[in-house]
From TrEMBL:
InterPro entries named in the record: DUF4405
Organism placement in taxonomy: Bacteria, Bacillati, Chloroflexota, Chloroflexia, Chloroflexales
Keywords, ordered alphabetically: Membrane, Transmembrane, Transmembrane helix
Native species: Candidatus Chloroploca mongolica
Segments crossing the lipid bilayer: 12-29, 41-60, 80-108, 128-145
Name of the molecule in the record: DUF4405 domain-containing protein
Domain of life per record: Bacteria
One Pfam family named in its UniProt record: DUF4405
Domain Flavinylation-associated cytochrome: 82-141
Amino acid sequence: METKRTPVRRTTINLLIDGAMFLAFLVATAPHLSGLAIHEWLSLALGAALITHLLLHWNWIVQVARRFFGKASWTARLNYLLNSLLFIAFATIIVTGIMISEVALPFIGISIARDDFWLGLHRMASDATIVILGLHIALHWSWLVNTTRRLFARSTRKAGRSGATQPATSQESTL
Ligand code: HEM
């Protein structure tokens, strides 16, 4: 049977990806706790997730980029600037991380002579990203709270309804 891609399903996917990226970023900020291998592989995976994230929001990116100098609201403009900064800072972390890599790069047979310039930049970009990410989350706070509430309310309602009228096996359909 055909399964429809509803907006709710898409929102759920966005929320899950955003949440997973945020958690992975938190772990990445503490390499001394996680160990270097986890730090490097997880961060590289995070880079891949960022590309997915950008593709999922591509329509929004194109729309605001077009309207940036025209009719866009100031919030949308601020969002766009902040997201661009976030992207630049994050890309810097990944590139500099690769330059100082002690696990992932040697794993594929490449070794680069250590240069403290890259480490300094890696630290700076990481600190900047924490600040920008804080602002990014603050700007999206109502979306985050409302969406999470709606999704929980919806799944609780559906679970209650199908519990009352259908056998437990048919509960998969919703989000
Ligand atoms: C979300 C992405 C990342 C964040 C937030 C991040 C953050 C950090 C932080 C805060 C440190 C500690 C610096 C210090 O000792 O003061 C560090 C160290 C390090 N990072 Fe990353 N990093 C990220 C991605 C990467 C990637 C993709 C790689 C390599 C593939 C990498 C390789 C390293 C290495 C090798 C060190 C240890 C440097 C040393 O102390 O000798 N990082 N990172």
